[in-house]
Specification:
The protein is an alpha+beta fold. Helix content is 38%, strand content 29%.
Length: 326
């Protein structure tokens, strides 16, 4: 196996890139051509890129490791830990160790550090890379970075409710009844077509920035530009939705969901803090989960972050890790 290094994503191209992602174990939307290209355009336009491509003897692409230089001598995986929930080496399923061996051998003489963020704990990158790196005189460290609460969905909403503990089921139903009583005009709506999403992104950004001071700092002009580009691009292939809890006075809660491989992912959120007593986010989230079940999705992924409201739905937390190779 040989390793080639390119300085731009276009040297690989969208069809080959997405074809490889589809052949991986992870199949993460955060590794897709659209996500990676848009992230690089907004956040790494002045950075050096290295797209490491591992090819087999017949010239077939086996793995991709896209990196950007974050600081001199330090290269991070493309996609950004602040916006990408699952990142990893993109390798054909079953050939991950082989690909890592080729990549490690190709960089043994380089005095640089590679940082891979948001790598699922079950990945070969976490479980096997430290031992593989040692064989090439390199050191690899692994640390749990965050956790993603994940819910396996049953066949019906009623079955799901019955599976909840008595406390959480009671609280969820109480919050839904209270909203119906105190805000009877509130309605759930969703936008999935690109034009619909574009028309309501302003409402999402408004609620997102209002909900927490940290979110207002996070959603700066560059981040908004990235969100607009990637969500509309995902909507064009039926992989993104905007959800709202609307009232006559305006929306009071919102979620962005993205979908892949039978999974609905809760990507981002916002709510009106003046209506917090109504628990609008939890009520809207119940409708989003119920919709995922009704459409036959297998998994609801709350993605990174262990906010308390997520655990009211009784998911199981999966770790994601930071992996450093030096």
């Amino acid at each position: 196996m040989k390793v080639l290094i390119h300085d731009r994503l276009e040297a690989v191209g969208a069809p080959v890139w997405d074809g490889l992602v589809a052949a991986t174990r992870l199949r993460s939307p955060f590794l897709s051509w659209t996500w990676q290209r848009e992230w690089a355009r907004v956040f790494a336009e002045d950075r050096r890129l290295e797209i490491h491509c591992a090819e087999d003897g017949s010239g077939g692409l086996v793995a991709l490791l896209p990196l950007y230089e974050s600081t001199p001598g330090t290269w991070q995986i493309l996609g950004g830990a602040d916006v990408s929930d699952y990142l990893d080496l993109m390798a054909v399923q079953g050939r991950e160790e082989e690909a890592w061996m080729a990549l490690l051998q190709s960089r043994t003489a380089e005095r640089v550090e590679w940082e891979l963020h948001a790598v699922p704990a079950a990945s070969i990158t976490v479980t096997a890379l430290p031992q593989l790196a040692a064989a090439y005189g390199l050191a690899a460290s692994v640390a749990v970075e965050e956790r993603c609460p994940v819910l396996t969905l049953p066949s019906s909403w009623e079955t799901y409710l019955a599976s909840l503990s008595g406390k959480h089921r009671h609280e969820l139903m109480r919050k839904m009844r209270r909203l119906q009583r105190d805000a009877p005009d509130a309605r759930v709506s969703s936008a999935s077509a690109p034009a619909e999403i574009e028309a309501r992104l302003g409402d999402f950004f408004h609620l997102h920035r209002r909900s927490l001071a940290g979110k207002a700092r996070f959603m700066d002009s560059r981040m908004e530009r990235f969100f607009r580009r990637v969500l509309i691009a995902f909507a064009e292939r039926g992989a993104a939705r905007l959800w709202f809890l609307d009232t006559p006075a305006g929306a009071i809660a919102t979620f962005v969901t993205i979908e892949w491989d039978g999974t609905v992912g809760l990507y981002n959120s916002g709510f009106d803090p003046e209506r917090a007593a109504l628990s609008p986010g939890v009520v809207l989230l119940a409708h989003v989960v119920r919709d995922a079940i009704a459409r036959g999705r297998r998994t609801f992924d709350f993605l990174r972050g262990e906010e308390r409201y997520k655990y009211e739905f009784e998911p199981v937390a999966d770790a994601v890790c930071a992996v450093r190779i030096r």
